[in-house]
Amino acid sequence: xxxxxxxxxxxxxDAGATKIRCAGCRLILNVAVGxxxxxxxxxxxxxxxxxxxxLPRTNTPAPQTTASSSIPxxxxxxxxxxxxxxxxxxxxxxxxxxxxxxxxxxVPHGLSRFKCxxxxxxxxxxxxxVNQFVPHPPLPVEEVNEVAIDVEREEQEGGLAGETxxxxxxAKLSIGLPHPDPIVETSSLSSVQPPDPxxxxxxxxxxxxxxxxxxxxxxxxxxxxQRHLQHLPNGSRAGFFxxxxxxxxxxxxxxGLIWENWLCGKKKALWISVGxxxxxxxxxDLDDVxxxxxxxxxxxxxxxxxxxxxxxxIKEGVVFLTYNxxxxxxxxxxxxxxxxxxWCGLSFDGLVLFDECHKAKNLVPxxxxxxxxxxxxxxxxxxxxxxxRVVYCSATGASEPxxxxxxxxxxxxxxxxxxxxxxxxLGALEKGGVGALELVAMDMKARGMFVCRTLSYKGAEFExxxxxxxxxxxxxxxxxxxxxxxxxxxxGL
Length: 493
Fold this sequence. Notes:
- This protein is α/β, with parallel strands linked by helices.
- It has helices at residues 67-70, 146-156, 187-190, 204-210, 215-227, 250-263, 279-288, 323-326, 336-344, 373-384, 422-446, 471-490; strands at 18-21, 28-31, 37-39, 46-48, 94-97, 104-107, 113-115, 122-124, 165-167, 183-186, 240-242, 268-273, 296-298, 317-322, 351-355, 389-393, 450-451, 454-455.
- It is elongated and about 115 Å long.
């Protein structure tokens, strides 16, 4: 315990310290024997020991000089006064600080006026503030739980009592190296264990040699392939949902899935994303996992003819397209969706990867709106290809229950489930709120159809920087907003 320079530093005694409750922050302090004045290390409040804990003064009056007392008798030493019996905090009383000398006094309940036994000042109890000196509930003197004190203080200050995120590592797999960055998972999901892995990867030995994927990316491959071996009660193949955030490596995980299925003989795959330029990222990810032989074909560069015809000549590989291309059609009425279905075949059992699948979130819009063509196309291609191995990939795909309408391959609603259709499922979630959505996510993880990890922000700092506008920029911004407001008014909004 630190003592300010202005206060004397008493010698330390061999006996144990006395426990005193601070008059300011209410923490229990260990005060060394012989120390009468001290400063709380938490709130820096100067204080004194209660009078009943002060050691007796040693400067007693000098004895009278007599013949018998002038000669000391070693065999008969003078008796020493009995040591005081300190009792620290009296749990039956209230601990209040003296307004004058700052001594901590044990005041009986109901006593409104009294005199400080240390400095003799008359004191009165302030009833309006006395409650802050009464601990609720009182902590035991013998054992001080510092962790409980910190948690109680956070709760009183409005902070969170528990951890929101927990460090993540695969629970039932030990293949691959740790992820290069710290990864966390929500505390609710971390309380659920995934099913036992039963799928044996064909690229496992290759991955252990190249270290192209981390342990949690390999875990996603195992559970996705294991999930694709199952079928829903309506006969369609079960799908998998990758809800990882940025930095976990969803693109390389998708490339690993393509390479695993390629080695299993499924050499056709559809990769649907938000931008055509992401085709180069797909090529890079495939090269990183060792799938250099897998060709990537950009659909927007190809004609509307049959993809496997002699003129186009695409027999296998990955067809990369955007959600806009999925709903596009030619002047003759031939659509890209029909072109893809013809190339895959109705018995297609390869991968259909919906990357950034939140683009199809408006399949079930609010009342008064119509579903988007993108959402309807995503739903249609899943219905036409019931044996396709569907993967939904988005960090925000399930942020709102209404946005999950196109995820029919999860089996959360429909034939054989608790909800006959998505409307019933959505109504139940909206009644339950965020807690119901968390329960759905926990159930999905427990059934082996969902992973959701994100980068840890532990130690990250942020700073709000204000950028003042000069007169020219202020005038320009005001004019721009005026035009926007006029357009809104013209639209009747």
